[in-house]
Structure formats: structure tokens, C-alpha cells
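Quick log. Single chain, no ligands specified.
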Amino acid sequence: MTMDYVPLAGGYGHGSSSLSSWIYQRMQEDLKKGKPQFPPEFGDVPKVQTRDLRLLPFGYGQGSGTLAMWLRKRAKEVYDESPEEFEGGSGMRKFDGFDDDLFLQ
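-> predicted structure:
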């Protein structure tokens, strides 16, 4: 495990880049199964969502604007992390094995 301190994938707060990479790999596995999982501390996903489709923050693929806003809000409230901080200008491409096609599904 590395000793650096970075924003973690998935909006899980802050920790080492090794931990962030591990989280990202698990997120990719979940996305391939079509079942993304969000931090349990975020609570229940909004039951009513808009029908617009957009990129979700923190590498969760695509979803509704409602879901995107919920992820932003809960990550800030629970872990004090923002999508802008996580993406740092380079987005998810900072991870080895980033799969554009999977991310955009």
C-alpha cells in the first residue's frame, strides 16, 4: 500500500492511491455486471429519478441527473469529496486499464 493521500474512486473520501485503484477495479467489475454499488453511508438511492442520461461522477458510468446530483451531494456531506477534486483534470484515465466503452455505457 502506498503512503500518498488522494481522493478515492467512487466518492469514498480520501486515502492511498493503492486503495483508490482497488476501489476502482471493484467498481469496474460491478459496472460489467450492470449493478453499480454506491457507498453504504450514502443511504438509499433516490427512488424517483429524471429520465435524462449523463455521465455520473466518480466513475459510476451513466445515469440520471437526479442520481448525479445525489452522488455529488452525498460524497460532499459524508466524505467531503467533490467530483472535481477526484477527477483533477485527468478524469478516470489516471487508472491503468481505464475502459472508455464501459464507462460510457
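The radius of gyration is 13 Å.
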